[in-house]
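User: I'll paste a sequence; please echo it back and then give the predicted structure.

Assistant: Echoing your sequence first, then the prediction.
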Amino acid sequence: MSDLVVTVGPDLAKNVFQVHGVDAEGRVCVRRKLRRAEITPFFAGLSPCLVGMEACASSHFWAREIARLGHEVRLMPPSYVKPYVKRGKTDASDAEAICEAVTRPMMRFVAVKSEGQQAVLMLHKTRELLVRQRTMQTNALRAHLAELGIVAAQGVEGLSSLKTHFHKVRGSLPEHATAALQALIRMADCLVDEIERLESRILDWHRANDASRRLATIPGIGPITASAIAANVPDASLFRTARQFAAWLGLTPSANSSGGKDRQMGISKQGDGCIRRLLVSGASAVMRFARQGDPGKAWLVGLKERKRPKVAAVAQADKTARIAWAILRRNEVFAARTA
C-alpha cells in the first residue's frame, strides 16, 4: 500500500486526524482516522509522496515534521480548498478535498515557515494584543475620569497630564473610584513596559535579518512593518507579480462583474490585517511629508489633490506593498527616484 500512494490529504485537528490518499490513477487507497501519536509513524511508513494541507495555526509544524520524512509538503489557503468539498461537511470529505486541491495546476500555495519565523510572528501578535489592551485601558481611564469632571486632550501628552491631574485631586475623590482608577493606571503602565520589551526584541531580530533591513529602506516602512513582512513572507517567489502580493494583503479592489459589466469595489481586506494596517499607517506618514517638486513624490502629491486622504493612503500602501515584493524578489534595496 505504501508504494501505491502518491498524494495524501490530511485534515488537521487537535487529536483526531482524517487522512485521504490516492494512487497515480486517482483511485482511493487510504481513507482512515489517525490519533495524534499515529501521524508520524503513518507518514514514516509511506514512500515519498505529495502531501497537501490547509494552512492553519499548526500546519507549519506538521509540514516541517512530515517534510523531514522525505515527503513534499504543500500548504494551501483554506478558502481555496473549500470549492473542492462535496456535499456535506465531514472530516472525510475535507480530507478528500485537500487531496484533490493540492494536485490542481492553478492552485496557490503558502510557504512553510520555520520555527524562528513563527517565533517572531508570535512577538508581533502578542504586541498587537497588548496594544489593543492598552487602548482599552486608557479609554476606560479617560471615560471614568470624565464622569468625575476630569478631562484632557487626546494623545500621549494629554494622557500624561490626565494622570498628573488625577494624582493631585485623588484625595478629594470617592475612595472606591480612586481604587478603580489606580488599578487602571497600574495596568496601563505595565502594558507600556511589556510592549517596549517586545518591540526591543523585534528590533533586535530586524537588525539581524537581511530581508527586513532591506525592506526598511522603503519610505513608510519601519522596523516593525519590515520584520512583520519578512517573517510572514519567507519566499516572495510564491507571488508571480507585485499585484498578486498586494492582493494577498487585501490592498487591491474587489472585482464584481456580471453580464459584461465590470465594477471595482473597495479593497478586499483579505490576508494579514496587521501588515495591512501597518502599511496604511506608514503610507499616511509618507503623505504628511510629500511636497510639491519632489520627483519621487509627484504621483502621491497628485493623488492627494484628487482623492480623499484615506483613499490616497490606501493607494500609497498598495504601491508600498508592490515595492516591498520587488525588494524581496530581487534582493535589492530601495532607490528613490531623483529625476
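The chain has three domains: 7-101, 115-208, 220-330. Residues 7-101 form a domain with the Nucleotidyltransferase; domain 5 fold (CATH 3.30.420.40).
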